[in-house]
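Fresh eyes needed here. Kindly weigh in on this sequence plus structure tokens:
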Amino acid sequence: MQVEELGKLERRLSISLALADIEKEVDARLKRLSRTIKMAGFRPGKVPLKIVAKQYGFQVQSDVLNERVGSAFNKAIEEHHLRVAGSPNIAPRSGDKSPEGEVAFDATFEVYPEVKIGDLSAIEVEVPQTEAGEAEVEKTLEILRKQRVHYHARGETSGHGDGGVKKAVEGDDRVTVDFEGTIGGLPFEGGSASGFTFVLGEGRMLAEFEAAVRGMQPGESKLFDLTFPSDYHGKDVAGKAAQFKLTLRTVEWPHIPEVDAAFAQSLGIEDGDLAKMRADIHANLQREIKKRIFARTKDNVMDALLKAADLEIPKALVENESARLMETTRQDLRQRGMKVEDVPFPAELFKTQAERRVRLGLIVADLVKTRSLAAKPEQIKSHVEDLAKSYENPTEVVRWYYSERKRLAEIEALVLEENVVNYVIGQVKTKSTPVAFDDLMGSATA
């Protein structure tokens, strides 16, 4: 069997099989089938071979051909030391007729490319740097306090009541209301609710609605006008003027907990020691900083590798990755409650991302193989233990990871990424770039 080069990565393999061998195997399988098959009008094992062949001959012949062609293809690939990328396209040979007594097929496929990585020492990679100090700890404490807010009725004097006489809505109060909206005197869908609760300032309601609620007291009702924005998500009411009748049921003020022993205990500090609490927050921030710095550094490293490497990418792998990205997108949209069965997803939509992912995958795989960067058991163990430190019972977390191979495989992939990034960082020129704490942490500081 000969292999033809059709392009830089594309190959064609010619496969010829003896018809006599195919027919012999088909006959043997049909005879075995006739001994066990059940058919109306015949006793088990007594169905005539001609009837069995008429009904099942085509399928049996197809199965035999697929098996023989697949076996011949795999044998040829091994003999020629080829690494096939994607699945081969196998079809009956076109053009020339097969030699007498033989059936011929052409298998067209792509092979994995040779990866050439240039001089990494000539490349500069930025490595972000930041630290978490007292100010960052205090800022995180404020976020943690706000996350634990709870509400009490305005005007109460006992317990956690505000002790005041004001019952009117103000600040960031939580209110429960009834409202009925009309447009042109007629009610509209979604324009009415009973016992509806929301917190002012969270942006859940339109600014005009919140403004109407402010200053009201429980039991009070009022009428007010509201014009929906032209870009409002509800297209039926966008840009239209409405009138609402609003009744305030209850108003509650936000009680943000003080930073005391009870608060520290709520964060897992059993003895309520505030110094321990701050030290624990600082340690968690440092772990998060390390993780985010690595993520940014990894992106910079991958960009550098893409520039330094020279390789062709197999079309089959790009098509497979595009299909995978498309299905992932569909599943994500389904989980959000969207109907995506009839939504077209052009293949080009995912091509650029798929090409990048395939190219990086080939480069990283080459580095792992040629530089011996595979994750070692001790590295995996260390990574799991480090992850477990942020949990209340680290030992149980470690046991949880090691109880299932899939979980450990995810850690192994992370360690492998670290090995590649650390290897590249050791080869390139690095430039430390200060990054503001808030810029690095974004909105997920806590």
